[in-house]
């Protein structure tokens, strides 16, 4: 009885939040009118492929905990998580954790330990590729501060991954840190194939994200260097990892426009590209994601799939 009441309350709150969100951000969806049907299909296919790669990375990282998700789970949970992120701040990972706990008996602590590895690998990969482009691409102006920033992110991500793998040894003598604040020790080095596969998925996702930015620039303004498109897309991905606002709304567009200005591109044009890029993503998150939301809503409190 309590579960049924809770489910009804959650449904009412989410429905209200969805209506308010769509009403306030209708202008973002109208920006899509600048793209014709054929180009919209191309951009949509790229977007769906990115969702698939993100879901596949989520599936692979859970294999460290001996959990094997089916397609509707890893693909559906990614879309449902995105919807929750738009509606409530940081709600997506929490709802994914709830589903995984109910169906696979994985504790919240273990789930967020695994999810932390996934986020760190994504930040590491994006920053490394961006750094290599800045150093070796002839079309990118040298910027010491940006290079140092990427080096800091790479170093921090690598250090945290090592800490997660060896934290029981490293923190053995630090007795004042309560165990509840520590992540689970996960055998990252014993799962090198999974880690390398996830890094490869992140590389492909970054390239596709860059392709989406590149095509939007070509369609709306003038063609830009593909390496610049990847750098702009990379900043967008990093902003989603940090996500200081729900789904990084506003922050992502601001950072992408600022990044474009650093590479000699118009920040105004970059802002338009970022908004339309967001609009295309939102269309598929809320349309296709709503279908999986029904499945998620029916299954989150059940113990079978």
Shape: globular
Number of helices: 11
Largest sheet descriptor: none
| CA radius of gyration | 20 Å
What percentage of amino acids are in beta strands?
under 5%
Indicate the mean pLDDT. Answer: 82
Give the distance, in angstroms, between the N- and C-terminal Cα atoms. 21 Å
Taken together, the total number of domains comes to 1
Structural class by SSE content: mainly alpha
Element pattern in H and E: HHHHHHHHHHH
Residue stretches low in confidence (pLDDT < 50, at least 5 long) are none
Report helical residue fraction.
Answer: over 70%
Number of strands: 0
Question: How would you characterize this protein structure?
Answer:
By secondary structure, this protein is mainly α. The protein has one domain (40-167, 188-299). The chain has helices at 2-24, 26-30, 37-62, 71-87, 91-104, 108-136, 144-170, 192-220, 226-242, 251-262, 267-299. It is globular and about 50 Å long. The two termini are 21 Å apart.
